[in-house]
Structures are given as C-alpha cells and as structure tokens.
Amino acid sequence: MKTLLQLNTSLFSEQGQSTRLAQRFVEIWRTLNSENSVIVRDLAKDPAPHLTAERFQAFLAPAEERSTEQQAVVAYSDGLIDELRRADVIVLGLPMYNFGVPSTLKAYFDHVARVDVTFRYAENGPVGLLADKPVYVLATRGGAYRGTSKDTQTLYVQDFFNFLGISDIRFVYAEGLNLGPERQHASLAEAEAQIGRLAA
C-alpha cells in the first residue's frame, strides 16, 4: 500500500482550479489500487501559522528545555513532517498569486524545513534528510508565465524540495486561465490530459 499526500494551497479550497486538478490526479491514482491511502492537507481550511521569532526559537531550543508552549509548536511541526515522511507521492495544487506562491504554502515550508530533522548542514553545504519521492505540482495561473522571468514559482518549489532531499519534481501547468473562456478550456483540458498520463 502506498500513501499520497495532497497539499491544497488555493484560497478557494476545493473550488480552486489547482485543487480540482490535484483532486483529479488523486482520483486516477486511487483507481489503480483501492487500498492506497490519501492524506489531504488543505492550507485554506487549516493554514499553518506564519513563522515568528517565538516559533523559530522553539525549533532551536533543546528538547529538554522547551516550555509547554514550545513543545506544542514543535509537535505541530513534527506532525507536518511526519506526513511528508509517510508519503510515497506528493501532489501539490499551486495557484499563482501576485507572481508568487500562496503565503500559506510559504508558512507550511517554514514549518517543515528544520535543521537536523529534514536537513542538516555539512562541510559542502546543506544536505536533505527526506527520502526522494515523486512530487507532482499542478500549477495554475491567470496569465502565461512559464519560462519567463515572472515565473518565480517553478525554481523556488524545485529548490525547496531539493533542499529537503526530494529531487523528483514534475510540473503540470494550466496557464492563461483569465485570458478568455476558450483559452481556459484548452489549458485545463491539456493539463488534465497530462495528469491522466502521469497518474497512471
């Protein structure tokens, strides 16, 4: 049995285009083996708190010296990391907001990047501590930015997962969704066709 972690980051939760594409991937993936399990983390319904100095200090404090509040902060982070570790496959629904990733995704990233937990510093730089696994990123954009300087998402998401030790990252783009109904329909249809091939 395999486990898939579905990360939804759209402000519109299940109604977001990126979430719908992620859900389509999961539906196809589950048909291959009904015993597969899916963990859904919806960052619109249950957003990760933005990182503060207090939360960051909780991560750095020795376990035996943490206050009750710090223990709760670390336990929350540990739970997110445990989901990443358990997952054999990650599916990330990724809308573009103002040329960047949703702030809730950045907050989530800040809680799963933990020194000596998901990465460590070595002589030649940081080393990721998570096992490699496929990450499918379903990127939806109102405009068309792939391959341009305005696409700040692709490299950032690749770099972050690489930082944790995950290098198998595959993008499906649905762009131009605000450039008229014909463009939207064609872009979503092409994305769904790609999803069908990848999920199977």
TrEMBL record:
Keywords: Flavoprotein, FMN, NAD, Oxidoreductase. SUPFAM superfamilies: Flavoproteins. It catalyses: N,N-dimethyl-1,4-phenylenediamine + anthranilate + 2 NAD(+) = 2-(4-dimethylaminophenyl)diazenylbenzoate + 2 NADH + 2 H(+); 2 a quinone + NADH + H(+) = 2 a 1,4-benzosemiquinone + NAD(+). Its cofactor is FMN. Its EC number is 1.6.5.-, 1.7.1.17. Residues 3-196 form the Flavodoxin-like fold domain. The keyword Flavoprotein applies. FMN binds at residues 10, 96-99, 140-143. GO terms for molecular function: electron transfer activity; FMN binding; oxidoreductase activity, acting on NAD(P)H as acceptor; oxidoreductase activity, acting on NAD(P)H, quinone or similar compound as acceptor. It is an enzyme of class 1 (oxidoreductase). Binds 1 FMN per subunit. Also exhibits azoreductase activity. Catalyzes the reductive cleavage of the azo bond in aromatic azo compounds to the corresponding amines. Quinone reductase that provides resistance to thiol-specific stress caused by electrophilic quinones. Belongs to the azoreductase type 1 family. This is FMN dependent NADH:quinone oxidoreductase. The gene is azoR.
